[in-house]
Every structure is written in structure tokens, then in C-alpha cells.
Amino acid sequence: MSEHRTELLDAERRLQQAQRDGDVNALDLLLDDRLVAIGPDGTRFRKSDDLDAYRAGTSKIDTLVEEDLAFVVAGTTGATFALCSVTGTFGGEPFAARLRYARTWTYQEKEGWRIVAAQISPA
């Protein structure tokens, strides 16, 4: 079980790096096809929305600095709670904010940890 904890932290860090790099291929592997995410303004997004925005350049992370990270693992379900300072572009508009990311992950032997749900809130 401690292996799952280490793998979840690694997946969270790989996600943050993929966001900074705009790495659509890495994001595709880390986001479950069933993903539902709620943005800071309450807008609902799916995996395809997120990937399309990165591809188009309407979502771009310039800086993402993790300030705090907590997590829990219960069997094949995990949750991460990250507080980050973020700058970039969202919806084609520049932004700078401290954001709280609450992500629910599911673990499968073949795919490893993938995000199925996320909530982003201003901090």
C-alpha cells in the first residue's frame, strides 16, 4: 500500500510538470477519459476540453509553484490537495492566482494513477 502512496505523489508531480510544459501527451496519460473538472469560476470541463485548450494555446501555464500538498490513499482511490501559485493564460486571458486543486485519482494496474475528478478554487 505504501507503494501506491509513493506512486500517487509521483503522479501528482508529473501532472504539475506536464501542466508547466504544456505536454498534451503526458496529460492524456494522467487524465482519465471520464474526467469531470470544475474550474475556479464553476465551469465544468471534460478531458477533451482540457487537452484541446492546451493544444490551441488558450490554456498555458507559465509558472506553477506548489506551496503545500496533502494526500490520502484508500485502496485504489486517492486524493491530492495542492495549493499552488500559478501564472499563465486561461481562455486566452492572462491570469495570476493562488489556486487550490482537489483531485480524485483512481488506480488501475495497467494505467497507474489517473484523475477522474478535479475542483479548482481560488485560495
Automatic annotation (TrEMBL):
So which residues are the signal peptide here?
none
Q: SUPFAM superfamilies of this UniProt entry?
A: NTF2-like
Q: Where is the DUF4440 domain?
A: 9-115
Q: What is this protein called?
A: DUF4440 domain-containing protein
Question: Which species does the entry assign this protein to?
Answer: Actinoplanes derwentensis
High-level lineage: Bacteria, Bacillati, Actinomycetota, Actinomycetes, Micromonosporales
